[in-house]
Each structure stands twice: as C-alpha cells, then as structure tokens.
Amino acid sequence: MFVTAERVKRGKPEPDAYLLGAQLLGLAPQECVVVEDAPAGVLSGLAAGCHVIAVNAPADTPRLNEVDLVLHSLEQITVTKQPNGDVIIQ
C-alpha cells in the first residue's frame, strides 16, 4: 500500500498517511507494520499506533527506543505469509 503526500493534508511526522493507509486496507493501525528509515517516518508510524520497524535510522531518531525493531538492513527481515493469510515478520 502506498499513500503519497498528495493524499493527506498533513505530512510526516503527523500520522495522517499511516492512518489513511490502514483505513484503505480495512485494518486498525495496530494491525499494520510501518517500515521506516527517516526520523519523521518513525514518529509518524508511532503516532498512528502502528508497529514500527526502523531500518538504518539515525541513532538520534526521537523515540527510537519505542519501535518494535531496529535494524541496519532490510536483509535482516524475513516476511512469510501463512496459509491462513497471516504474515510473520522475523
């Protein structure tokens, strides 16, 4: 799902884009995972109430200690879709 800046009134670090994305998917924000590399994106995902994975984010990113995972590279993530439709991120 891609939600571009043109679709929301307030950009990152406000949560609008992630809230709209969750709505368009028919999901609660708590059911969504945000993958971000920018401080504003991390803050946006957290403000929306999503799970957040920070990838190669600067060490001084505000609230970095609140994200679900901090990774140096996307190569550290394995995403598996289960037969029942669930998605496992490891």
Structural summary, described in words:
- The chain is α/β, with parallel strands linked by helices and 90 residues long.
- Helix content is 22%, strand content 20%.
- The protein has helices at 16-25, 39-48; strands spanning 33-36, 51-55, 69-71, 79-81, 87-89.
- The strands form two sheets. Strands 1-2-3 form a three-stranded parallel β-sheet, covered by helices on one side.
- Strand 4 and strand 5 (87-89) form a beta hairpin.
Layout of SSEs?
Blueprint: H1 16-25, E1 33-36, H2 39-48, E2 51-55, E3 69-71, E4 79-81, E5 87-89
Brief summary:
InterPro entries: HAD-like_sf, HAD-like_SPP, HAD-SF_hydro_IA, HAD_sf. 22% of the residues lie in helices and 20% in strands. It is an alpha/beta fold and 90 residues long.
What's the overall average pLDDT, rounded? Answer: 96
The residue ranges in which pLDDT falls below 50 over 5 or more consecutive positions are none
Number of H- or I-type helical stretches: 2
CATH topology-level name? Rossmann fold
CATH architecture: 3-Layer(aba) Sandwich
CA(first)-CA(last) distance: 20 Å
User: What's the domain count?
Assistant: 1
| Biggest β-sheet: strands ordered side by side in the sheet | 1-2-3
- Overall, the morphology is globular
CATH class: Alpha Beta
Please provide the count of β strands. 5
Protein name: Putative phosphatase/phosphohexomutase
Pfam family, one: Hydrolase
Organism: Escherichia coli
Keywords: Hydrolase, Magnesium, Metal-binding
